[in-house]
Amino acid sequence: MKISLEDIQSAFFGDDVPRKNIALRKAHDEIQRLQKALKDVTNPIEYLRRHAEADGNKLNGMAYSVASDLHFVQKIARDALDMSPPPPSKGKAS
Amino acid sequence: MNNRFEEAERYRLLARHYMKALGKIAIEDDLDAAQLIACEALGSNPPPQATGTTDLIKALSRLTGNRHSDGVSSLVSPEDREAIINGCYDLMVASRQVPAPHVVEWQGMASAPCDGTHILAILYREASDDPDGKRWPAFSEMREIWFRPYRAFGMDLPWHAGDPFDDPSGAGSEHMGEGVPIAWQVLPSADVRALAATATKGSDE
Fold it and tell me: Is the same domain home to A54 and A73?
């Protein structure tokens, strides 16, 4: 679950202790999520393997080409940031 | 309450550090460069020392020129400015020396032992203003810490950076924990103890 870091900070302006604890837990989860995305960028094959195994599948020969694709790595980063993909390049002929 | 606030601030800084790296990766045009950005963000593959020093000097120089939104008053006090300029000069001189033979292998904090083992870590703190209006400049330091679960005040967090002088209960101390640990390496205990023994011997004579 993606959370706003400002929300976490705002939890500390009041006296609501449970809210602060929840905010800290959420912040920790957010760190783990971002860190995992960075690790996936450094090792896209592992990312593919994890997803394949979660679906009960195994990697095939295509995995290396997918993992070596810049757009795939960019997508991992964009997904982690919840960003939309950039608009398609207008200069390229279809 | 203060400890938890600081803990939250640490998380925020670390998240921001990671998000910046992911943002760069999302628009990077080269796969190798994108992966290098991720490695650097995780602290696992720092650039060569000379390059890092040059970049640091440039960044510090830019910092001294930063202004508040009014465009007039400087973000950096005259004292800090002087300290930064002097530090840059020292760094520049040091970077031209023969590099130290010891290669530092920094790793991301994800791989740091969480069992209370003492490690050497880089702690980073962003510039901030506290509720009393006091300005704390950005600062990074390398120091011996431990890295273990934080269970004080009813909390149950998987990690917390303290230092070897902290209360063994894990409650933390006032003087520590302001920086976010962003990279670590095995503490060269044997070397440190040998150096300490030599220094003690020297001072005794």
Answer: yes
